[in-house]
Amino acid sequence: MDSPEVQPPIPSLGSRIELFTPSRANVYVGFILGSLIMAGGLGMAGCGLSQIPAVRVAPNEKAKDQAVSHVVSGLFVGAFLSLMGILGIWTAHSLVGTGVEVCENGLRWWPPGPESTVALWEEVARIEEQFVRDKVPMKLGGPLLSRTFREFVVICRDDRRFAFDRENISGIGRLGKRLRAIAAAKAITWVVVGSPD
């Protein structure tokens, strides 16, 4: 996977402080799981197609109907799994080269360019630090496996929202420290939602 190239800074944003990107592990796992699921789907479709000769040589209608149901179910399940695998690969691919660039005067989503979303610090109304509890059902371990995760939401005066969590940013703790320092320096309201464990 190529690392994001350094782009010339947008004058209104000033120089870059830090670039935060998704975890490469998430991207690799997405590609691998998507490929395995797609391969399993193709295998299931192949199993369904392999039942076509059984349809032709079926000794009676009941055996023929059963063979036809095997063909149809194999093709249906195979197509569904293949589509899920393709969706997983597409999702992993969509993370490549993305991220958020924190600059002196604002932030912008990567990849940069004329279409990228930009928010200046002077446009930000508040930054929320949200503590989200990951609730695990009791039969899977319950409170012993439940954890609290931090998310950060930058809310602009025009109601634009930039949400950052551990799924789309690998260094969420570092990003939080950067945002807190900027909020203190630029007099941006910092709101804490929820509480850590």
Describe the structure in your own words.
With 197 residues, the chain is α+β, with helices and mostly antiparallel strands. It folds into 2 domains: 11-23 and 97-193, PH-domain like (Roll); 28-95. The protein contains 4 helices and 8 strands; from the N terminus they run βαααββββββαβ. β2 (99-103) and β3 (106-110) form a beta hairpin.
The number of distinct helices, counting runs of at least 4 residues, comes to 4
What is the 3D shape?
Answer: elongated
CATH class of the largest domain: Mainly Beta
Estimated radius of gyration: 25 Å
Structural class: alpha+beta
In percent, how much strand structure appears in the residues? 15-25%
Descriptive tags:
197 residues; alpha+beta; PH-domain like; four-stranded mixed β-sheet; elongated
Q: How would you summarize what this structure contains?
A:
It contains four helices and eight strands; from the N terminus they run βαααββββββαβ. It is α+β, with helices and mostly antiparallel strands and 197 residues long. It has two domains: 11-23 and 97-193, Roll (PH-domain like), CATH 2.30.29; 28-95.
